[in-house]
Design a protein that fits this description.
- This protein is of the alpha+beta class.
- The chain folds into 2 domains: 92 residues, lambda repressor-like DNA-binding domains (434 Repressor (Amino-terminal Domain)); 154 residues, Lipocalin (Beta Barrel).
- Helix content is 29%, strand content 32%.
- It has an 8-stranded antiparallel beta barrel.
- The longest helix is centred in the N-terminal third of the chain and has 16 residues.
- InterPro entries: Cro/C1-type_HTH, Lambda_DNA-bd_dom_sf.
- It comes from Gemmobacter megaterium.
- It holds the Pfam family HTH_31.
Length: 269
């Protein structure tokens, strides 16, 4: 529920919180003067921040947050609360590893937004093939994915309807020779890593790659598979037909070029 105007923190309150947080962050620094030189902040102005007498400009705040690996919540929340959020620290570290400052934005012409169909070997049913659909879309220059897995569990005993649908989401990252994809189901806390190169056996129609699940090895299951991706370019009727094909099957509807790629031995990946 939104706070009433009388409950909103005053500018003095916010400055005081920021000052306390900044003093706590600086407690591990050997020299405030050296810190100011490294961040590129005027020492006199920095003293005003420490005393809770002033706010930093947005660009100065960004430098402070980047140095101490925190976010702009240091203006409003006690540093103890922010540090307790281990997910934020992990996310910042993952960002620096996967998308360093010199990383280039995604060239969207390499993978235009739209619907894509993929084929891979089943992880849980040896000898079977999985057909699925992905929605690839861009938000604020970030290439993302949304889809769901269908598991062959009937709604009622004796029926053939597939009922269990597990949604998952992903983020694409561009490399000089292809694109990688990190996906998570969220609720089951299982990640998958996928890498695609452009083209398949000289055909530019497909993206060809390999995908792996982050889980322990279990008897009768797999964690690694080839995967082939194809951008959908048909109409609504064609999309409905494809939607009826998703799930686990014998691979009869997998194109021959994709089938050969999927059937390669793991040593050839």
């Amino acid at each position: 529920m939104p706070r009433s105007p009388s409950q909103q923190p005053s500018p003095a309150d916010i400055r005081a919180v920021f000052g306390r947080n900044l003093r706590a962050l600086c407690s591990a620094e050997s020299s405030i003067s050296d810190l100011c030189r490294r961040i590129g902040i005027n020492r006199t102005q920095f003293n005003r921040y420490l005393a809770g007498e002033a706010f930093p400009r947005p660009d100065i705040l960004q430098r402070i947050c980047a140095h101490f690996e925190v976010d702009a919540r240091i203006l409003l929340e006690p540093i103890e609360t922010i540090r307790a959020d281990w997910r934020l620290r992990a996310a910042l570290r993952l960002r620096d590893i996967a998308m360093p400052p010199d990383a280039r934005p995604f060239d969207h012409y390499l993978m235009p937004d739209g619907i894509y169909r993929f084929w891979r070997k089943s992880f849980s049913n040896p000898g079977k093939y999985v057909t699925g659909l992905w929605q690839v879309h861009t938000v604020d220059s970030v290439k993302m994915l949304k889809s769901f897995d269908i598991y062959p569990q009937p709604v009622r005993r004796g029926t053939k309807r597939f009922s269990r649908k597990v949604p998952y989401w992903g983020v694409f990252m561009q490399h000089f020779d292809g694109v990688s994809l990190l996906c998570s189901t969220g609720s089951e806390n299982v990640l998958s890593f996928t890498f695609f190169e452009y083209g398949l056996n000289g055909s530019t129609r497909y993206y060809n790659g390999v995908t792996i699940l982050t889980r322990r090895q279990m008897q009768g299951t797999a964690r690694l598979s080839n995967i082939v991706l194809d951008r959908f370019t048909g109409n609504g009727s064609d999309l409905l037909r494809l939607a009826r094909q998703i799930g686990i099957g014998d691979g009869d509807q997998v194109p021959e070029a994709a089938r050969r790629a999927l059937d390669r031995l793991p040593s050839e990946l």
